[in-house]
Amino acid sequence: MEEIFIGDFEFLGKGIPRVDAKDKVTGQAKYAADIEIPGMLWCKILRSPLPHAKILNIDITRAKRVIGVKAIITGKDFQGFRWGWMPATRDEPPLADDKVRYYGEGVAAVAAVDEDTAEEALELIKVDYEELPGVFDPEEALKEGAPVIHEYRPNNISWEFHMDFGDVEKGFSEADLVREDRFATGRVIQGFLEPCSAIAYWEGGGVTIWAAKQSPYFLYRHIAQCFKLPLNKVRVIQPFVGGGFGGTKNDSVAGDFCVVMLSKITGRPVKFIYTMEEVMISARRRHNAIIYNKMGMKKDGTITAMQSKLIADGGAYTAIGPLTMYLTGCISTLPYKLPNFKHDAYRVFTNNPVSAAMRGHGVTHTRFAAEIQMEMMAEELGLDPIEVRLKNAIEAPHETVNKVTVLSCGLKEGLLKLKESNLWKERGKEKRKNHILIGVGVSGTAYLGGARQRGHQAAAAVLRLCEDGSIEYLTGATDAGQGSDTVLLQIIAEELGVPPEQIDIQRVDSAYTPVDPGTYGSRVTALAGEAAMKAARDLKRQLAEIAAKEWNVKPEDIVFKNGKVFVKDNEEKGLPFRKMAQIACYSGSGRVLVGRGHSEYGIEPLDFEKGIGNAGTSYSFTSQLTRVEVDAETGFVKCTDMIIAHDCGKPLNPAIVESQNQGAAVQGLGQAIYEEFKMDKGKTLNPNFADYKIPTALDVPNIGVIHILTEDPNVPYGAKEASEGAIVSSPPSVVSAIHDATGIWFKELPVTPEKIALALREKGRGS
Amino acid sequence: MEKKEISFRINGEEVVLHVSPNRTLLEMIREDLKLTGTKEGCGIGDCGACTVLLDGVPVNSCLVLAVEADKKEILTIEGLKENDKLHPVQESFIENTALQCGFCTPGMIMSSYALLKRNKAPNEEEIREAIAGNLCRCTGYVKIIEAVKRASSSIGGK
Amino acid sequence: MIFYRRLPKFDYVKPASEAELFKVISDGRKAYVYAGGTDLLPKLKKRLLPPPDVLIDLKGISDFNYVRIFDGKLRIGPTATIYSVYTSSDVVKHFPILSQAARSIAAFQIQNRGTIAGNICNAVPSADSAPALLVLQANLTLKSREGERDVRIEDFFLGPTRTVLRDGEILREIEIPLLDSESLGLYTKLSVRGRMDLAIVGVATLILKRDGKVKDVRIGLGAVAPIPFRAKKAEEILKDGKITEASINEAAKMAASESSPIDDHRASKEYRLLMVETLVRRSLKKLLGV
Predict the structure, then answer these.
(1) Where are the domains of chain C?
(2) Phi, psi at residue A10, to the nearest 5°?
(3) Within a 13 Å sphere around the CA of A530, how many CA atoms are in the beta-carbon half?
(4) Environment class of residue A436 by beta-carbon count within 10 Å: exposed (0-12), middle (13-18) or buried (19+)?
(5) Domain spans of chain B?
(6) Which residues in chain C touch residue A674, judged by CB atoms under 8 angstroms apart?
(7) Residues of chain C contacting residue B65, judged by C-beta atoms under 8 Å apart
(8) What is the Cα–Cα distance from A659 to A652, expressed in whole angstroms?
(9) Which residues of chain A, if any, have pLDDT below 70?
(10) Following CA atoms B113, B115, B117, B122 in sequence, which dihedral angle do they give, to the nearest 10 degrees?
(11) Same fold across B4-78 and B88-154
């Protein structure tokens, strides 16, 4: 078992096996689609074949007559309800009512006794559309006279975000070299293997819904709003989740609202499962953006100023877009010193599928542009890529011009480790082997952890001590696969001195578990972890008081370790934890011991409009080396190696931290060279895994992860974030490697073999 | 559409069922036999989440008709462990943190199990090829490949 | 627009003999014949084909499942899986190019069910087995209730997903004549990922030698024209052993000019043409030791 020493701990810093591993390897773990309730009906959704059209009429009379159809609904049944991330941007209906705004938007839904019948019924629903001109490119949508997608945004600008710090013009004038470049990130999707699915059961004036959600409490609030239910009548239960990666499963989908409505009408449980094609066409994607980046650099590599303008394709609705725009700029002032920074971000409506969050949210676009441009300038000035990064890297403690405060930073240490690696040392020694060009690239990036949005941001934990010493742990935090359940149990185990097997984690059930903002922005270990730690300490305090009375000492002198409760420096005076629990519970007329804790920020409020302040409780720093072999004629890229130096503060479970880094890096590799949705007037041409190419086992490189340890006081046990850093560091590292191999800077993702082959030919380096 | 009676063995057990011709093996396993360990990812043979062994070879059960199970032997993830003892491949996945969300895991394990049955000491290239039809979005495959390597040595491959 | 998760309704029959098959195949109902189902089932699920009244499963006819050398030819039956062809010792020994091509198709799960016969009857221009079968000059036996007819592989394809197969007719056997001379072959598949991809360009190159001298060069191309085809003009340039670096380059260029690829979401026409030239040149150089 892998172990990293991060302190005198029994369970922390150890790569203990995941607590849910056995259920998953035996097939026992139940996901939403695995759940079956007697009497359950199946829901299927009819979707628009047009990207922009008025709905004139929907005729359901023939469909209603199909035997086995129990209910049919259309957009009108939701009575004008709109949902969205902010009150000001609630522009999305569960099913389109006045018009459809993207190809595949839902317009009607059927509940029937089985899925075959539901599909048959959909075939008989007749929808009359009046097609409207559509717009599919954000820069086109900004032009005068472009089709207006939402009345409340006549210029099609869904959201804007502006930052202005220092004096960029002065900064550019101080520079010896100024560059302006246009970059573009591609159309990519989370790519989780589990399609969206949920079962809703309306009974007793409320609804219970089992749903595949990464953050169930979003759905909880959406359902309450939509169906005008008090929150205590909305019960969201979470099964195991088959991957999230932000976006779709951190939001609600048409199917969720439909099954609740259909269950309300029929009085029976109703289930939906999307097909993967349906997910790819109708669910959320990452924003794709054009980034105009301008940077000023002195001869010695010092960055003097940066100005970025980002135009994002927001798709048909706003969703979480405002946060995305904020994130494209709020930590652009990391990880390099940047005294002057201006950023203008525009999220533009188009008749494309809705863009929302995805791992590395917002930062992936602008960090990609800045990293590549910085290296381009270093090259022009004759500076080494690692040296220029070391020159500009921040050191903790550091406050940026927009008041982002960094209390720990392992960037320099990471870069230095990479510099010492054989991979970097061998760079340039062999640049070509027959028709294969070899290159090694580097990147140095940052991401935030313990994310904070607007609204309710606290995590809480409840620990119930059972009289036999076993413990029930209630948390609203979700493990969508990233391994947080295990790490949270390690924290509680460490605090109470009992093995993780003695603690049982209850998956989210909003009837019992405390509300939680959700699993995103790498906040679970930081914030739910803080809550768990505090709940454990609360429980400890209660037990310590009882023990202290027993042994006539002060509560502060009681130690919980190795399954025992004893007096400090006098282990003889002690009892096994289980015995202590029994005594505590049975003392007097019986006691109920419950530990409670919640997270607190202790940081100043942030200014969301201006991009001032901390978007998270801490920041991770990821430096990455990538080695590629590029076929000089076909452009085919084989990525052979990656080394990731990741500063997550303290890896509470090093095996999980590594796995997260490897997964994020491969997802980043996919974005960099393989993945891309091809669009034709709003229609996705490749909505399947054969043509939307996520990496397979044959495509992935060897990936080594180096743990960089730092001390951060703002997080439990010093654990920052370990889930998103590598998806930010990966694409620029890959593109830097491709440049090292080919001599060409590619500024648009994905960098496909075709792009490389044609560019090499143009450059005259064909063979 | 006439239902057909089929009889087959699944995870060592004899079963007789009446199935519609248009039912897939995956649907039968999950919905008729309630063995929900095998997952539906894409439903069209691109992702491998539905991998089961049919007469000992890995197939995408979403592309096999249920009627074709007649007189055949099926092995799903639920059939790997013996009583309470996990198969070495399963143990290895746990020990080597070769999973995250777990959705691809049953299919991934079935492909790995099939590999080790036909090749006791696969090299890395052979392992990668064996699981090339099983997509994973969470792990980046690195620890999965490691887990299969270690499972093969514990089964006595090297 | 509906995203179907279920297959449409149909009847299913599994004839146990050829006689039974031909009785059922033309009994008036709309029937699709299938073996592996790995191309058919996704199409049916997505409603890209009109639903049939009946699906006829060929796998009940045990005589259909073979890969063997018999009577001077390699013979592949209609239900021989891709995996069985790629691992057949006869194929590996005598026609390694076909083994290579078969191995490049998708992944094990598909190879254990899909058939070579199905791969060519599905007739997408990028079918991986087609270029290899073209250079091996395979002969196809088509059979119906009326009888049998032979069709050369190069006459089999009519266009994307269209072949000369008539209603009620099946591909009964693929036969490949044993080569009477020493041969070297290579199938190169250009794709974006290492696996699971349809070929952007597929090139099969076969060199036949006699007494150490090159006697014949055959080039089969896939995914770069409406049908897989042999680049005969390119072959002509290398005829009678006129093998030099210059003639190879010329042949490669000619092969590209004989191609007519399209722009689609997988690749552009321009790139495909360049890749035909590159891959033909490379495989010729490799096989001819130039």
Answers:
(1) 11-60, 63-177, 182-288
(2) -90, -35
(3) 22
(4) middle
(5) 4-78, 88-154
(6) 192-193
(7) 12, 37, 41, 55, 57
(8) 13
(9) 601-604, 765-767
(10) -120
(11) no
C31: left (phi over 0), alpha (psi -120 to 50) or beta: beta
3-state secondary structure of A172: helix
* Per CATH, domain C182-288 is 3.30.390.50: yes
Which structural domains are found in chain A, ordered by start?
A: 21-29+458-598 (3.30.365.10), 32-132+200-241+248-281 (3.90.1170.50), 361-451+617-763 (3.30.365.10)
C189 phi, psi to nearest 5 deg:
-115, 125
CA–CA distances in Å: residue A548 to residues A468, A496, A567: 20, 16, 8
Among B33, B93, B101, the strongest candidate for a mutation testing the A interface, having the largest count of A CBs within 10 A, is B101
- Which among A33, A190, A697 is the nearest to B132, CB-wise? A697
* Average pLDDT over every residue of B100-127: 97
Report the C-alpha gap between A323 and A308 in whole angstroms.
Answer: 17
In the predicted structure, residue C225 carries a pLDDT above the cut 80: yes
Q: Which two tokens stand for residue C18?
A: 């050829």
Packing angle between helix A725-742 and helix A753-763, nearest 10 degrees?
30
CATH of domain C63-177: 3.30.465.10
CB atoms near residue A683 (< 10 Å): 17
The backbone region for A658, taken as left when phi is positive above 0, alpha when psi lies in -120 to 50, beta otherwise, is alpha
CA–CA separation, A581 and A470 (whole Å): 9
Are the C-beta atoms of residues A471 and A496 closer than 8 Å to each other? yes
How many Cβ atoms are within 10 Å of C161's Cβ, its own excluded?
Answer: 15
Question: Which pLDDT score is estimated for A500?
Answer: 96
- What is the end-to-end Cα distance of chain B in Å, rounded? 52
* CA dist., res. A719 & res. A735, Å (int): 30
Q: Tell me: domain C11-60, CATH 3.40.190.120, correct?
A: no
What pLDDT was estimated at residue C241?
65
Produce one character per residue of B49-64: b if its CB has 16 or more CB atoms within 10 Å, e if not.
bbbbbbeebbbbbbbb
Tokens read off for A171: 């900064």
* Nearest 10 degrees: Cα torsion C280, C282, C284, C288: 180
Cα–Cα nearest to B39, from B139, B94, B87, B108: B108
Q: Which chain C residues are Cβ-neighbours of A47 within 8 angstroms?
A: 1-3
Tokens representing residue A423 in the block: 């991979």
For the full predicted model, state whether its pTM sits above 0.95.
yes
- Give the chains touching C; criterion: ≥3 Cβ pairs < 8 Å: A, B
A631 and A741 Cβ atoms separated by less than 8 Å? no
Comparing alpha-carbon positions, the chain A residue that sits nearest to C7 is A116
Q: How far apart are CA B88 and CA C73, in angstroms?
A: 45
Q: Is A734 helix (H, G, I), strand (E, B) or coil?
A: helix
List, as ranges, residues 93-122 from B with C-beta within 8 Å of C: 111, 114
Provide the pLDDT for residue B122. 97
Sign of CA dihedral A324, A325, A327, A332: positive
**Average model confidence (pLDDT) across chain C:** 95
Which residues sit opposite A574 in a β-bridge?
A566
In CATH, the architecture of B4-78 is Roll (3.10)
Alpha carbons B65 and B30: distance in angstroms, whole number: 13
Return the SS3 of A730: helix
pLDDT for B158 equals 46
Environment class of residue A545 by beta-carbon count within 10 Å: exposed (0-12), middle (13-18) or buried (19+)?
middle
Confidence of residue B157 (pLDDT cuts 50, 70, 90): low
Average pLDDT over residues C203-231: 95
Provide CATH code, domain B88-154.
1.10.150.120
- DSSP-derived letter for residue C64 is G
Calpha distance A76→B109 (Å, rounded): 46
Q: What pLDDT does residue A604 have?
A: 67
Q: Cα angle vertex A361, ends A620, A231, to 5°?
A: 105
pLDDT at residue A399 in the model = 97
